[in-house]
Amino acid sequence: MRIVTATAVALTLAAGVAPAATAQQPSTDGTWRMDGYGTVLSIRNGTLQEYQTTAVSCLEGDSARRTGPGTYTTPDGTVLTVRTRGGGDLGSIRADGSVGDRNLRRIPKLPDACTRPAPTGPLAAFDVFWQSFEENYPFFSAKGVDWHAVRDQYRPRVHTKTTKDELFALFSEMVRPLHDSHVAVQDGDRVFAQVRPGTVPPTEELDTKVKKFVLERDLKGARNISDFANGRITYADLPGGQGYLRISGFGGYAGQGAPYAAQLAELDRALGTVLSQERVQRLKGLIIDLRINGGGSDALGIHIAERLTGIPYVAYSKRARNDPADPTRHTRPQPVHVTPAQGPRYTGPVAVLTGGSTVSAGETFAQALMDRPGRTVRIGQPTQGVFSDVMQRKLPNGMSAWLPNEEFLTRSGRTFDGTGIPPHLTEPVFTKEEFDKKKDSAFDRALRVLRNDRTAN
Fold this sequence. Notes:
Structural class: alpha+beta
Mean pLDDT: 92
Helix content: 10-25%
Number of helices: 11
Largest sheet: 8 strands, antiparallel, barrel
Radius of gyration: 23 Å
Shape: globular
Strand order of the largest sheet: 1-2-3-4-5-6-7-8
Number of strands: 22
Low-confidence stretches: 1-23
């Protein structure tokens, strides 16, 4: 988890998992423009360098070093795969731990703005900040925010003497009406971010409190209570023959900073125990508790979904805004498939518990189960309403802006950004009254639903 409180954010370059490029492919060296994402890549002498572009700026972003044929590794250990197609003038980039890819088109050289010193000063920082949202943020209309009016209101307040403290406060004020927890303003260790009104962020403190509550209240009398993946996954066999699977995040399974391959290996070890052949044959229902989930890797969520179906299906489709002047234009939607795993699979009824503290990859996992073959019911409260990977946009004064630019689409083309994924059955989730009375209405409703399904069958 990075920067935004309890919200997993992806590297600007990152998106998905791909096989390594082969030696027979044309060289990936050269200059590439990404379809959407306001990004140009330069690949030369074993180094991949990102440039973040807008109509008014070009700033150096992340970099990565070649670590194999067509693969590059960033300083934090993220592995990027670059490959060519179409004779070498088209390509794509993918990163482990996310889903989808990003298309590249070869261009003759870096844009002129990338070859000269970038403007500096408070006004330049303001213009890059505003322009980054103007060209990439997809949800102004849905949020009822006139971004041009915001510029007209705030730009006159910026001058050559404006301090970083003043800019931080001003930028925070500008994005506050978005109520988008994938939007953040960063200045060093100082971060402004907020969740949707009426919800609380999935902090470590809340997670610890809820985990203790669940153990003492919901899992009283349960068997085989076990923690996996650095405490992010808990499983228990319930007295009525149902299983309970609590997932508090889709990352940190092998410790913070561990590479995706290590996270995936730890998840496989957990699933190998939780969804053993003996257990999937006897389970009479499965509760999946996502109510406190800070997100992480979408790909890890898909990996779990693959253990919950015997039939292939599409989890969702992913697209990004790709026209700086037209927020209604997007990249071609990329379907993300759920393919049944080779090992034991549980295909029976599932009750998914969600709430406002279900964030980011926690939501994409919930969305991946929406069209799951078989009985799947959602219980609780709507999720937070943020699905996109998060772009980090550097500003000329050393500050950063974080913002989403993608949509995750259902089969009918619907997105749940802003509102969150609604439950089928509404119940309170970890309210003060529920804590005070030691009630867990959503958990109890899930048990009733699964037991009724068993009786009906």
